Amino acid sequence: CRDPLGMESGAIPDGSITASSYQSAGVEPYRGRLNGVAGGAGAWIAMHRTIGEWLQVDLGEMKRVMGTIIQGRHTADQWVTSYKVQHSADGICWTTYAGCDGLEMIFPGNVDRSLPVTNLLDNPVDARYVRFLPQSWNHYIAMRVEIAGCDTSRSCGDPLGMESGAIPDGSITASSFLRAGYEPYRGRLDGVAGEGAWVAKYPVIGQWLQVARHSPSYINLWLCGAIGRVFVPDQWVTSYKLEYSTDRIIWTTYSDSKGSEMVFPGNVDRSHPVTNQLDNAVDARYLRFLPQSWHNHIAMRVELFGYNTSRF
């Protein structure tokens, strides 16, 4: 889900690219296409060198926006050195992209006129309109851009290795386990080895099942779904939270659009899997399932779905 959405290719028409202002003929908003050299100047250039200028792209329909690429002016040493991103579904109500700390994100920009700079979003957004808001620049506000993403109907992704065994036993850990046969690595979707699930030692909130990806080519993954199911008779998790991390030190609890920690619905029996897709995928190497309620005891088997986050 990291396809170019049409700035460089021209799939986005000129009329769908607008701006707060432009300096003169030849530097209109539609000149702001990645690797574009038309118009003489080879970029969109704002009329004013002040914060508040913006370049806007109408994607034509709702898309899942995964990242942005920016580039400087083709013919002169003019480029944007930092910028914010706003997104909207209707072109009226705008949201400034923020980090996990709730602060508006300032993305690093260019250091020269030609080398593109890519910034992936930690939490992708669904939007039709995307705005680039320069915060600092070299000489003039001059930009060429691309937006990366995919259709919002794109599937959640591929299984990431719990059921298949691609995730090794040693990468599956937990706060505790009941006894031999209930170890964390028993918590694989459709697994029937041992007692057929990870079972926590203590039936209390605070227990967790953790999955890590250690292969160098899978350092970060878009975690966009999870399934739970257990084999142990009449024991299952009925609700849970998710935490994610890139380093196992700083953890973030997955939250809804209002900033409230999300509690996902769990199982209603021992055999039927329950799938929960994240509204906004997250970039993480480690994921924890935190049971919040359960039937008889905390028992889980899980799978993750997503994509590798290799750079553009």
Question: Could you explain the architecture of this structure?
Answer:
With 312 residues, the protein is mainly beta. It has two domains: 3-151, Jelly Rolls (Sandwich); 158-308, Jelly Rolls, CATH 2.60.120.260. It is built from no helices and 21 strands. It has strands at residues 3-4, 17-19, 44-45, 55-71, 79-88, 95-96, 107-108, 117-138, 142-151, 158-159, 172-174, 198-199, 209-212, 221-228, 236-245, 252-253, 264-265, 274-284, 286-295, 299-300, 302-308. Strands 1, 2, 3, 4, 5, 6, 7, 8 and 9 form a nine-stranded antiparallel sheet that branches. Strands 11, 13, 15, 16, 17 and 19 form a six-stranded antiparallel sheet that branches. β5 and β6 form a beta hairpin. The chain starts with a strand and ends with a strand.
Strands, helices and their partners?
Elements: E1 3-4, E2 17-19, E3 44-45, E4 55-71, E5 79-88, E6 95-96, E7 107-108, E8 117-138, E9 142-151, E10 158-159, E11 172-174, E12 198-199, E13 209-212, E14 221-228, E15 236-245, E16 252-253, E17 264-265, E18 274-284, E19 286-295, E20 299-300, E21 302-308
Antiparallel strand pairs: 1-9, 2-4, 3-9, 4-8, 4-9, 5-6, 5-7, 5-8, 10-21, 11-13, 12-20, 13-19, 14-18, 14-21, 15-16, 15-17, 15-19
Task: Describe this structure in a few short sentences.
The protein has 312 residues and is an all-beta fold.
If you average the pLDDT, what whole number results?
A: 88
The top-level CATH class of the largest domain is: Mainly Beta
DSSP helical segment count: 0
**CATH homologous superfamily label of the largest domain:** Galactose-binding domain-like
* Helix percent band: under 10%
Radius of gyration: 23 Å
> CATH topology of the largest domain, anyone?
Jelly Rolls
Based on the structure given, which CATH architecture of the largest domain is correct?
Sandwich
Low-confidence stretches: 215-222
Q: Could you give a short account of the major beta sheet?
A: 9 strands, antiparallel
Name the structural class. Answer: mainly beta
Alpha carbon gap, first and last residue: 11 Å
The general outline is: elongated
Strand content: 35-45%
Secondary-structure element pattern, one letter each: EEEEEEEEEEEEEEEEEEEEE
What is the domain total for the residues? 2
The count of strands amounts to 21
